[in-house]
Amino acid sequence: MNTSSGTAGSRAPRAPRRARGGYAFIAGYVVLLAAFGIVPTVYAIYFAFTNADGAFTGLGNFTAAAADFRFLPAVGHVALYLLFWLVSLVVLVVVLALVLHRLTSQGLSRGLRFLFYIPGALAGAASVMVWLFMLDPTVSPVSFLLRALGFPTFGSVIAPGHLPVLFTLIAFWTGAGGWIVVMYGALNNISTDILEAARIDGAGPWRTALHIQIPLLRKWIVYMVILAFAGGAQLFVEPQLLSQASVGVAGRDYSLNQLSYDLAFQMNNVNGAAAVSVELLIVGLVVATFFVARSGFFDAE
């Protein structure tokens, strides 16, 4: 009895040390979150509800931003892009992850995972520059394909009606590979006993995917949709660079983030820009809350 008590007593102090180690690991993240996340957010909220003199204006900045003739078109552009982006992301990422998982036994998985992940190593601006090169029929290595599709010039490729699809292609090429790898890892965590039981019951690959694998990926898919929505709603780099490269085809105010940038740095209306930013934050939080609540994201398995 004494020996066991002594042993337990000697082990007791380890818990506080482990707790201190955990705090040390997250301390850097907390500092960066406060400096580049919480403080700027509070600062933006302050500007959104005040005027240039610091006086409280209520919803004045929000109504003024919404009344801007560029606001509703920008909302429509972002909404259409999000529709294309999220649908293509969910469908293609899940399908490609399932295919990748099926190829594991064939020795192709490791190489394909590397290929999927490579585009994500490029920064947003660099990936857009690559696509500007690819979409110009005069220099593109796939110019024959562009001309066959009826796009003989760069201007015809980046016509305003094509922009949501083009931005979706750029975003998918840059960001989908990392999510495919994440979904692949989640598929590997599904118990082989469950998959074997399904096979014994006569379920083929598609029935297994539809009734077992995809439902078990639900929380990962929700997590992906939340982050993809938040990133897509802040569309900025793609239309901004395309606008400069094409002499204004996309426009400086194609997206809400561009409109916010233009209000702040071209019109010196920091308060209006902050209002647009806070609106994006609110929409993102509402969408995230909806998906989390409906999916049971934090429910214990």
From TrEMBL:
Its main location: membrane. Residues 75-291 form the ABC transmembrane type-1 domain. It holds the Pfam family BPD_transp_1. It is found in: Cell membrane. CDD domains: TM_PBP2. SUPFAM superfamilies: MetI-like. Keywords: Cell membrane, Membrane, Transmembrane, Transmembrane helix, Transport. The chain crosses the membrane at residues 21-49, 78-100, 112-134, 165-187, 220-237, 272-293. It comes from the Bacteria. It is a multi-pass membrane protein. InterPro entries: ABC_transporter_permease (IPR051393), MetI-like (IPR000515), MetI-like_sf (IPR035906). Coiled coil: none annotated. PANTHER family: ABC TRANSPORTER PERMEASE PROTEIN, DIACETYLCHITOBIOSE UPTAKE SYSTEM PERMEASE PROTEIN NGCF. Belongs to the binding-protein-dependent transport system permease family. This is Carbohydrate ABC transporter permease.
